[in-house]
Amino acid sequence: MTAAAAADPRLQRLSLNQRTCANWSLREAIDGCTRAGLDSIGVWREPVAEVGLDTARRWIEDAGLRVSSVCRGGFLTGPEGADRRAAIDSNRAAIEETAALHADTLVLVPGGLPDGDRDLSAARGRFLDGVAEIVPHAREHRVLLAIEPMHPIFAADRGVISTLAQALDLAEQFPAETVGVVVDTFHLWWEPGVQAQIARAAGRIASYQISDWITPLPPDALLSRGMMGDGHIDFATFTQWVAEAGYTGDIEVEIFNADVWATPGDEVVATITERYLELVQPWAR
Fold this sequence. Notes:
The chain is α/β, with parallel strands linked by helices. Helices cover 41% and strands 16% of the residues.
């Protein structure tokens, strides 16, 4: 294993979400974080399952990393039936995996409209009911469920919760130590009144994720997240709002982009650290 880079205290809160370097295995991502001098990593359940939970935990611990978040739970918008029961069971398993990895936060992607369904309100209600069903398990395992509002372009297939205001309306029905929200620049930079909503989220921000909004959007909107500084988001202002809300946790870079994925991982991480130090870190608290 390559020796760790000299620690830069300015990078203490910077976390690499695994999907940013999608071509890296979990082992490669851990080693990449170590080489770059990062202290944390955001992991996805599937790569963890490939190597086994115990092995993943040991690798992460041996590297001296913490897990900033686990992706993902959620997808709880389906009607009652076998598929919904399987989704609930999968979320309970995700909670247990998060606890086993000594992570605090499980990200919940709400889910989209079931096939043939056009009732957004009902889908949102089913998501709320699903969260309520798994909250006791999360409380038992001391895991914070983090509802991730997603840009409206994903409302049909991935995220019926489109604004931070909507996410907070749901989260506030549960104790803050059990249900919080993800503040993601890509998904929320456009939201009218988002500054007030971030202030409202004080005490409930479970994760701060960053990537840029680039134009023109690629044909696959899912792969439209850009490297910070390549698009339209004012990271200084957005980060300052998050800091003013009292958030002091990890700042996780999560980029879905085919060009980024095709770039060698170490080069991607080097660009991330450079852009983070220039555009984000000076305004983080």
